[in-house]
UniProtKB/TrEMBL annotation:
Alphabetized GO MF terms: transmembrane transporter activity
Record key words, sorted: Cell membrane, Membrane, Transmembrane, Transmembrane helix, Transport
Protein name: MFS transporter
Compartments reported by the entry: Cell membrane
Annotated source species: Heyndrickxia oleronia
Lineage of origin: Bacteria, Bacillati, Bacillota, Bacilli, Bacillales
Length: 398
């Protein structure tokens, strides 16, 4: 109880950095118009961000492993504030790309260290709850940050969003300096050693599920605002409401996904979630011209899309409990790579086919994730049967 308020401060920080990541999808059309590029080109801001996050974060975390944790967290937040400053000062698309790279690296390092610090200041036996609280702040960015950003961009200059994030982050930086104690660095784990986990086939296949799941999701989500305005015919106000409902449904889906992994089992929950995720995106595309159909389908999409995340994490940890930190870090990088590739594919589809095509292409991307899911669960089943047979044979010998 004594340190719970410190964990909430970390959660507020994660909300701010999370908003900087997610909000761009909600205001993509506004940003594209302001900097004078096509919506497809603006979508590559998500590609650049995700690649920078995926590649830059593990490298920087490895290089700064011995650095005192509070100092590293504050340095990451300072870099993040710089990214916001460059964003509001931007005079063109190239400068905005640079700002997204800075924001991505600052966000990635901050989140890794914030989760580590939260676990260290939590009471014994409460580490999981502390980490969940910090992640809740990041998830709330999708629920509150994105629709709020859409409202601000629709009424004022979109750069006000990043001005506000920057100012609040500066305040958070000083609060963290005063509230968070110093923690020694950790023993560095070389990148080569981290990547060696890919040598286990079942883990490699399982990690690829997240890649295809988030790839298909990102193909359509990157262009969700122009999709809803241009294809569905929603007003700015309706888009904000739709994005808010989307965020709420994603949070509920995440909770139900975790419950489902325990209640119905990992294979059933994950495969069911992927099937429904893919199918609902197809329905959104089929009924894309009807607000009456699209609005509830948006909520179902978010629900089943984000139900996969916690199931995937539980499955990965179960395969390598002794290397849970490494495997979850790699999973995060792979998800960011999936986002990067999804934004590229979505941009190519918008440019060369049509804006509406991102729907069925995204559905195919998610459906492909079913292949590694079925393969890894088949490998899991064979492994369990082999262990049971070995135990039975040993018992008979005894």
């Amino acid at each position: 109880m004594l340190n719970s308020w410190k964990i909430y401060i970390l959660a507020i920080g994660s909300f701010l950095v999370g908003t900087s990541e997610f909000v761009i999808a909600g205001i993509l059309d506004v940003v594209a118009s302001d900097v004078g590029v096509t919506v497809a080109a603006a979508g590559q801001l998500i590609t650049v961000y995700s690649l920078s996050y995926a590649i830059g974060t593990p490298i920087l975390i490895a290089f700064t492993a011995k650095m005192e944790r509070r100092k590293l967290m504050l340095a990451a937040l300072a870099l993040f504030i710089l990214g916001n400053l460059v964003t509001i000062s931007t005079t063109g698309f190239a400068m905005l790309v640079g700002a997204r790279i800075i924001l991505a690296i600052g966000t990635g390092v901050f989140m890794v260290v914030a989760l580590t610090v939260a676990a260290k200041i939590a009471q014994p036996g409460k580490q999981g709850s502390a980490i969940a609280t910090v992640l809740l702040g990041f998830n709330l960015a999708l629920i509150l940050g994105v629709p709020l950003g859409r409202v601000i961009a629709g009424s004022y200059d979109w750069k006000i969003i990043f001005t506000g994030i920057g100012v609040l982050s500066l305040i958070a930086m000083f609060v963290l300096l005063l509230a968070i104690p110093k923690f020694e660095g950790e023993t560095p784990i070389p990148i080569r050693e981290q990547l060696s986990i890919f040598k286990t086939p079942r883990i490699s296949v399982a990690l690829s599920i997240g890649f295809f799941w988030i790839l298909g999701y990102t193909i359509i989500y990157t262009y969700i605002s122009p999709f809803l305005i241009t294809i569905t015919g929603m007003s700015d106000r309706m888009v904000s409401i739709g994005l808010f409902a989307f965020g709420i449904a994603s949070l509920l889906g995440s909770q139900v996904g975790g419950y489902g992994a325990d209640k119905w089992g990992i294979p059933r929950t994950m495969i069911g979630g992927l099937l429904l995720h893919s199918g609902i995106i197809l329905l959104i595309t089929a009924f894309s011209h009807s607000v009456m159909f699209v609005m509830p389908l948006l909520m179902f999409w978010a629900f089943f899309a984000w139900s996969t995340g916690p199931v995937q994490q539980v499955y990965l940890i179960g395969m390598a409990p002794e290397a849970s930190g490494i495997i979850l870090s790699l999973n995060t990088s792979i998800l960011q790579l999936g986002m990067a590739v999804g934004a590229v594919i979505g941009g190519m589809a918008v440019e060369n086919i049509s804006l509406q095509s991102v729907g069925w292409i995204g559905a195919i991307g998610v459906a492909i994730g079913l292949i590694p899911a079925l393969v890894t669960f088949s490998m899991r089943s064979r492994s369990i049967n082999g262990e049971q047979k070995l135990a039975k044979d040993n018992k008979l010998e005894f």
